[in-house]
Amino acid sequence: MTTATGRVFLIGAGPGDPGLITARGLRLLALADVVLYDALVHPDILDACRPDAERVFVGKRAGKPGERQALINERLIAQARAGHLVARLKGGDPFLFGRGAEEAEVLQAAGVPFEVVPGVPSPAAAAAHAGISLTHRELSSSVAYVTATESADKDRSSHDWTRLATATDTLVIFMGLRKLDSLMALLVEHGRPADTPAAVIQWGGLPRQRTVVGTVGTIAGLAREADLGMPALTIVGHVVRLRETLRWYDTRPLFGQRVLVTRPSEQARSLSLLLRDEGAEPIEAPSIRIVPPEDPAPLAAAVQNLSAYDWVVFTSRNGVVRFFAEVRAQGGDARRLGGARVAAIGPATAEGLEAFGVRPDQIPGEYRGEAVAEMILAHHNGALGSLRVLLPRAAVARETLPETLRQAGAHVDVVAAYRSLPPDAAGLARLRALVTGGEVSVVTFTASSTVASLLELLGDGAVEALRPLTVASIGPITTATAERAGVRVDVTAKEYTNAGLVSALVTHFSERQ
Asked: How confident is the model at residue 153 (pLDDT cuts 50, 70, 90)?
């Protein structure tokens, strides 16, 4: 999308959790032609960008090279003058130690229209996720935000520690970890008692968050012993004591678990959201990708002849999506199903159908092919006669469902709606690195195909590489596939859905505590 006169949106992405960006920030991000984003922006937020939007990383980390601010300013002006909508995506809030004001001043001087979209400030989010309220009616009625890293153009710090050390009940120090010893010494020197509670929070708002609590006199040594690194915030004040009773985030059952989601990209997000809700850090690295069938003609013919079928049976959301893509390609919609009854293997598949305006007639109590066949047999009292059934599914799948129906007399047309292929070279390299490099603690399998594909991709030593990890399966069929290959499965969901899988993981880790 372009406009005759471009515009720049200075958007605060919030810290850590990708769900903390504002609704307006997401809306403008989805409109942008160009997105310039910082290092602390959660990568999942970029999923809101248009697929054709240009994404430019301009971040920097302490001690590491980053794009010079002058060049960032030039990019913003040039892109806007070219008529583009530009999203400048910044961690936290643009106007809180984020150089957003400097960028806005440059844009104003250049005559470039801009809008500032506030974000959740990092101290507010980090403190909340650590169970610390920055203010409290009995403990703190004032807060000061201080940066330990000032402009390089300054000859010396402009902070008046004589006043600042005791001016407010709560003191929040940005980017001060590398000089924490000297900063705490300054506070004590200028009147802050050494026994004042203090905390350092690293990676606030993320499942990798770490919080160390001590006092002004001890916190530097404790942070060093814990090997805390950047990004980190230091909070000084009696409000730190609240953490003893207000902790909620890092007590979640899956907190700190890095969970490999092997589902295809199209379905990974729903599982990732459920995992994040329980405190885990989902890492999406699909072991398969979904592509059209080699020969699309059988599916096209089946859709053309839909009126001939008594039942249409869907065994996956992928099958639903690819089936209705063909229906649309032929100029039709859900009405093409006519009088055919529709079966879905489980709730996720049913949700996929409802997205196309179809509510399935039947869903079995157990989400597997055998149960679908039994359900249809029961509906017709076991006598299928000349019943015609259409089964659009993966090119390679279990034959139990169609064979059971055929043995009962039904005519079953199995058509390939899609194929499962390995990831591309980059995806393969990332997957191997995650599993063999100790980057994840849990591996999830949501279908037998994800098991087979991951083992094949990892090659020799795959079973051994999975041994130190917690392996979780969505159901008994997937578990059986893994165990036949020699993989130990630690968790098998009782309900064969994403929610059931996450619930089983929660139970597993809760019992271990």
From this structure: very low
CA distance 290 to 451: 15
Question: What is the sign of the dihedral through the CA atoms of 66, 24, 208 and 46?
Answer: negative
Strand partners, 143: 170
The pLDDT value recorded for residue 66 is 54
Query: Does 60 qualify as catalytic in the annotation?
Result: yes
| Beta partners for residue 88, in sequence order | 10, 36
Residues 417/394, Cβ–Cβ less than 8 Å: yes
Which amino acid type is present at position 98?
G
Residue 205 and residue 84 in one domain: no
17, 33, 38, 93: the catalytic one is: 38
Pairing of strands 388-394, 170-174: unpaired
Task: Flag whether pLDDT at 192 surpasses 70.
Answer: yes
Residue 86's H or E segment, with its range, is strand 85-90
Q: Over pLDDT 70: what percentage of the chain?
A: 95
Catalytic, 90? Answer: no
How many domains would you assign to the chain?
4
Same structural domain, 279 and 340: no
- pLDDT of 152 reads 43
60, 179, 250, 413: which is the annotated catalytic residue?
A: 60
